Amino acid sequence: MKPMEQELKNMFGQTPDSFSLAMERALAGEKPARETPAPRRLRKVWTVVLIAALVLALATGAYAVAVRLGLLDLSAMNELGVFPPSAQNILESTEVQTFEVGPLTVSLNSVMTDGYVIYQACQSRVTDGSRALLTDWTNGLYSEIPDGYSAYADAEGLAGNRLGDLAAQWEGQLYSVSTRLEVDYSVVEGGEMLMDPVWGADGSIVTGNMIELNPAEIGESLPATLFINVHEMTVNEFDLYSWVCDVEIGENWQLRVPMEVPVYSAVETRQYQVEGSGDLGIATVTGAEIERTGVELYVHVAMTVADETRKYYEVPWFELLDENGEPLPAGLLETFYINHDNWPEAVVTLAVGMDEMPDVVRIPYEDYVVTLK
User: Fold this and answer.
1) Which residues contact 92 (CB under 8 A, 6 or more apart)?
2) For the range 86-89, what are the long-range contacts, defined as Cβ-Cβ under 8 Å and sequence gap of 24 or more?
3) Helix (H) or strand (E) holding 346
4) Does residue 122 contact residue 108 with C-beta atoms inside 8 Å?
5) Do the bridges between strand 97-101 and strand 104-113 make them parallel or antiparallel, or are there none, so unpaired?
6) According to the model, what pLDDT value does residue 364 have?
7) The predicted structure's pLDDT at residue 219
8) For a Cys staple, 25 with which of 30, 154, 309, 310, CB 3.0–4.6 Å?
9) Closest of 277, 227, 288, 295 to residue 255, by C-alpha
10) CA pair distance 175, 126, nearest whole angstrom
11) Cα separation, 291 vs 271, whole angstroms
12) pLDDT under 50 in the chain at which residues?
């Protein structure tokens, strides 16, 4: 046995029987049967789990330390708004759950909902630490070669600066992984967004999604299903400039994990009164309510639109300012929702990335400014 192999065995131990059996079935062309896992109930008070000192060997023989990555890391790529301390505390204390799906180990590192939006982020890596590339279907192939794979390209002199370029010249394994948290359609209020992936320095990949919800339909916990979908892939040809991406799909492994996600709903509400006439030009502001959830603030501004013939979707996006005229930080999704059931009366909801109630909120529009206290 080579010294490096012995060193890895000392660190990681023997290969699990479940993985060996799965590999035997895969080589025989058989898809392993999986029973539906029992529902998992997550706790609001969790022990902080840190994934530290998981060491993987790169092609050069150097070692990289795998760290826990999640929604906070995805936010930099997806331009999410501000994570206030309350949201960060929830994410950092998420109870990590790990699953083996085909050749990959997938860890649910982040899950969070306040009844308005639910978010999840999973980190995936090759279970046995072997050389492989990970992507999120074909979209990730257009990303620049991640730092975790740069050693592969440098060592073998591969041309191109996109992951697809590397994958087209790659003689090793390539896997795509998709992780989606699914909820019952009856509680969905808006859309779903699949987040652009992030790669770790160890070659792992972080994927996630978010779904906008109707808080009126949400209780203290939300039933959800984590759907993990892994494909073996081969890139036969890739050309960024002509958008050629010839991909061959091989083995497929899937897993659905039901769970109950705790809801960090409203913990405080406060009514704000209009100072003055409330004239905003296009509407008259009549008051506001600010709702503080365990994640962020939601500002509900009540108004009467001046022109009844104006369509609700023509109401402009408002900016919220503090008492000094500085913009309040945008919420995670920069939410702008209009309840127009009693049009021309309406309630505009905006998310703010704070976990403390402001004393004053100002709404500017053109030459008008409405102050709420």
Assistant:
1) 48
2) 86/264, 86/294, 86/295, 86/296, 86/355, 87/112, 87/294, 87/295, 87/296, 87/332, 87/355
3) strand 345-352
4) yes
5) antiparallel
6) 96
7) 94
8) 30
9) 227
10) 9
11) 9
12) 1-65
Task: Classify residue 337 as exposed, middle or buried by CB count within 10 Å of its CB (0-12, 13-18, 19+).
Answer: middle
302, 307, 308, 311 alpha-carbon torsion, rounded to 10°: -80
Question: What is the C-alpha to C-alpha distance for residues 262 and 112, in angstroms, rounded to an integer?
Answer: 8
Q: Which of 132, 294, 112, 155 is nearest to 204 (CA)?
A: 132
* Coil, helix or strand at residue 187: helix
Distance CA 196, CA 275 (A): 43
Structure tokens at 241: 């400039």
Q: Which residue, 255, 249, 107, is CA-closest to 175?
A: 249
Closest to 335 in 3D by CA, of 305, 308, 301: 301
Tokens of residue 188, six digits: 């969905």
Report DSSP letters for 8-43, one per residue: HHHHH-SPPHHHHHHHHHHHTT-PPP-PPPPPEEPP
CA distance 249 to 43: 38
Distances (CA, A) of 98 to 108, 110, 226, 257, 312: 6, 12, 12, 11, 45
Q: Which residues of 160-189 are buried (b: 16+ CB within 10 A; e: fewer)?
A: bebbbbbbbbbeebbbbbbbbbbbeeebbb
What gap in Å lies between CA 85 and CA 62, rounded to an integer?
Answer: 36
| E-strand stretches of 162-282 | 173-182, 188-199, 205-213, 221-239, 244-262, 268-272, 274-275
Angle between helices 71-78 and 85-92 (to 10 degrees): 130
As a whole number of angstroms, the distance between CA 204 and CA 185 comes to 31
Is residue 280 helix, strand or coil? coil
